[in-house]
Fold:
Amino acid sequence: MKSVIIATKNKGKAKEFERLFSKHDMEVKTLIDFPDVPDIEETGETFEENAIIKAEAIAKLSSSYVVADDSGLVIDALDGRPGVFSARYAGAEKNDEDNIDKVLSEMNGVTEKDRTARFYCALAMAGPDFETFTVNGACEGLILNERRGSEGFGYDPIFFVPSEGKTMAEMSPARKNELSHRAAAMKNLEPYIEKLLVK
Ligand SMILES: O=c1[nH]c(=O)c2ncn([C@@H]3O[C@H](COP(=O)(O)OP(=O)(O)OP(=O)(O)O)[C@@H](O)[C@H]3O)c2[nH]1
Ligand SMILES: [Mg+2]
Structure:
């Protein structure tokens, strides 16, 4: 069976990828299965650069096929912040609740029409027999004034998707996996998976 390593230590992402890859007959591992792998420093200025850094670092260590996700929340009223700093917006310890509190306080007083935002996801794929490449996906929404829902992870409770009338934390995991930025990026990765891995 072909196997792929998802170069993430984020449990929320790992769960979503397990579902997103479930239709493929492949062994899917994440860095949660390799606790001794050190943290990879994300020194890039773009999601794409960081995804490539993570994918290539793990591909070097493993000689396996690797997919890395670099993603985050881009808020128009905050000039694109938290952006590539989404995971660590309120400090190096990566606390989702503190990150949400920081965004809510910065968005205090911003009127509804100016609360537009998107989740963005860059996926990089690296492997022993092809050049590393990236695909991406996005999901448009609005930043609420308060949390709603308990599914998902990260900023999901404050990210409202108008077409669903729900925050991402109010959707079932299955529904989030149909319309999220990560799902959109995975759709763009599918042809490569078919070609490179399912051969
Ligand atoms: O509400 C959310 N729903 C999502 O679907 C989502 N996707 C990304 N994010 C935020 O963006 C950071 C990624 O940063 P990031 O790509 O560096 O990942 P990370 O550091 O958490 O793990 P790793 O994959 O690097 O190991 C995450 O921590 C979250 O704060 C999301 N928030
Ligand atoms: Mg990270």
Remarks:
- The chain has one domain: 2-196.
- Residues 47-62 form the longest helix (16 residues).
